[in-house]
Amino acid sequence: MTIEDIKKLIAKDETRVLELKKTTGELIKGMQALCAFLNSDGGWLFFGVTPKLDILGQNITDSTQREIAHEMTKIEPAINLPIEIVEIPERPGCSVIGIHCDAAKFGDAPYTYDGRAYYKVESTTVQMPRSMFEERLRRSNPSRFAWESQTPDNLHYDDLDEGRIKGAVSYGVDKGRMPASAMTESTWSLLDKFAMIEDGKIKNAAAALFIKRPTAYPQFLLRMARFRGVEKKAFVDNMRVKGNFFELLDAGMAFLFKHLSQSGVIKGVRREEQLEIPVEALREALTNALCHRLMDSPSGSVGISVFDDRVEIENTGHLPNELTTETIKLPHRSYPQNPIIADTLYLTAFLESWGTGVSRIVNSCKAVGLPEPEYGTDGAFVWITFKRPNSVTNLDTNLDTNLDTNLDTNLNTYSVLSDKQKEVLAYCIIPRSSREILEHIGVTNHSKNRDRFVNHLVSKGLLERTVPDSPNSPSQKYIVKRV
User: Fold this and answer.
1) What angle do CA 13, 19, 22 make, to 5 degrees?
2) d(CA 309, CA 328)
C-alpha cells in the first residue's frame, strides 16, 4: 500500500467502511471502530489521518506497535489482522497505520472489544444492543444458544399435548414424510427423533409446537383484527389467542375464513367455490410466520390484520442476512430462524423445505390473477401483504348466514360459506374424523349434520378424504384439500 492508495480510500471522508484517527492517542476508539467493522460490512481503520482528510502521520516506534498489538488481543474471538505502516514521503519520520478487515458473514460469532460488542450505524460506531448480540450468538452456534434448544426446568412431559404429537405424526406418515413405523413409537421416542430432548429434558421447541397451556410463554400469542377501511384506526373484530403452533394456526385460519369472502369460478361445466385469496397461500404465510418468528422475547407474537384492500401477516424477527424483501421471492436456500421447529414441521408435512414456500405463495396468487404479495421489514418485524380483489371493498364480511336455509342457496346468494363451515375448514388443516369435526363446531353427530358440514365440503372440493377409495372406512378422516 502507498500514500496514493490511502488518498483514494479516504477521498469520500468517513463512511460505514472507513474510520480515521489523527493518532494512536485515539487507539481505544479506533479499536471500537475495528470491532464494529468486524460485526458489520468490514472496512479500513487509519491512524495518522485527520477527520479533515489531512494525512499527517505520526512517529511509529516499537512501543507504538506493541501497544496496538496489545489492544488487538482484547478483540474476541481472537483474530489476526495485518497492520500496514506506510511512510509519508513529504513528512520524513511520519507514517500512517492502516488496518483492514472483511465484512461479517452470516453465522459468524459477534466480535467484542474489551468485553463489549460494537457495530456500525452508517459512519457511527455504536455499542451493539443485547438483543442483537444474543441473536448473533445464537446464529453462530444454534445448537447451543438458540431459544428453541434451551431446556427450562419448569417444562415437563405432562405439559405437552400427546394428541397433538400423534396427530402431527399421523399427517407426516400420510404424506410420506415419515415411515409408517412412527405410528407405533412412544411419544418420548418421537420427541427424541425430533431433536426435542437433551439429557432427559424437554426443549422449548416442543413447547412451541405441543404445549397444552402456554402460561409461562407469553410469546405464544396470535393477534387478529378486522379493520374498517384501509388504516389501523377502527376495527370491527379484534381477537387474541394463546396456544401452541397448531392452535394458533387453527385460530388464524378460522379468522381468515370468517373475514374473507368466497367467489365462484367456472371450470369447464363445473362451478367451484374459492376463497378470494388462495387458502394454500394464506396457510403457507401463516405457517411461516409462526415457525420463523423470534421466540426468545415475551413480545414475540404473530399478527393478522384484515383491511378492505389487503391482508397483512406479521411476525417478530427479521429476514436472514442473505435475503431482501425482493430476493426472498426468488429461488433461495432455506434459512430457518428455528431449525428444530422447522425440521419437525417439515417431517409432519406442515412446512416445505429448501426455501420453496415463498414461491408457492407467489404462484398461488398469480394462478388466480392476484398481484404478487409484497414483503416488508423494519428490523423488528417481518410482514407479508396480500392484495384483496377490488370486488371485496364494499362487501359486508360479517353476513349472518342462516344454517336452516338451503346451503347451496346461501353460497350462490352471498358467495360465502357459513361460519360453521369455515370453522370446519380451519379445523381440518390436519386429518380429523367426522365425529371430531362435529364435536368441534358444537353440533350432534347426526347423518344430516355430516352431510351438511362434512360431505358437502367434500363435494365442493374443499375437503378430501384420507381414505378416498373407501368413503365409509372406520379410519376415515378429512383434511382441507391442498393444491
Assistant:
1) 90
2) 23
Amino acid in the structure at residue 294: L
- Verdict on whether the full-model pTM lies above 0.90: no
Taking Cα atoms as reference points, which of 107, 106, 103 lies closest to residue 119?
103
Helical H segments across 442-483, by residue range: 447-450, 456-459
Angle at 191 between CA 187 and CA 193, to 5 degrees: 115
* Residue 3 three-state SS: helix
Going from the C-alpha of 228 to that of each of 314, 410, 416, the distances in angstroms are 19, 24, 19
The rounded percent of the chain whose pLDDT value lies above 70 is 89
> pLDDT digit string (tens) for 276-304?
999 999 999 999 999 999 888 787 899 99
Q: What CATH number does domain 142-398 carry, 3.60.110.10, 3.30.565.60, 3.90.1300.10, 3.40.50.720?
A: 3.30.565.60
Burial letters 67-105, b for 16+ CB under 10 A, else e: ebeebbeebeeeeeeeebebebeeeeebbbbbbbbeebe
- Strand, helix or coil at 205? helix
Instruction: Match 338451503 to its residue by C-alpha cell.
Output: 406
Read off φ and ψ for residue 433, nearest 5 degrees.
Answer: -80, 160
Residue 193 CB: number of other CB atoms within 10 A?
Answer: 15
What does the pLDDT read at residue 405? Answer: 32
Q: Are strands 302-306 and 221-227 parallel, antiparallel or unpaired?
A: parallel
The full set of domain ranges for the chain reads: 3-140, 142-398, 404-409+418-483
- Among 83-87, 92-96, 319-323, 383-387, whose mean pLDDT is lowest? 319-323
CA neighbor of 19 nearest in space, from 55, 47, 54, 56 = 47
pLDDT at 15 > cutoff 90: no
Closest CA to 195 of 213, 181, 209, 184: 209
Q: What is the CATH number of domain 3-140?
A: 3.30.950.30
**Alpha helix ranges (H) inside 40-112:** 62-72
Please tell me the CATH code under which domain 404-409+418-483 is placed.
1.10.10.10
**Other CB atoms within 10 A of residue 192 CB:** 13
What is the C-alpha to C-alpha distance for residues 44 and 16, in angstroms, rounded to an integer? Answer: 10
Specify the long-range contacts of residues 206-209, CB closer than 8 Å, at least 24 apart.
206/155, 206/160, 207/155, 207/159, 207/160, 207/244, 208/148, 208/244, 208/245, 208/295, 208/338, 208/341, 209/164, 209/168, 209/244, 209/245, 209/246, 209/341, 209/344, 209/345
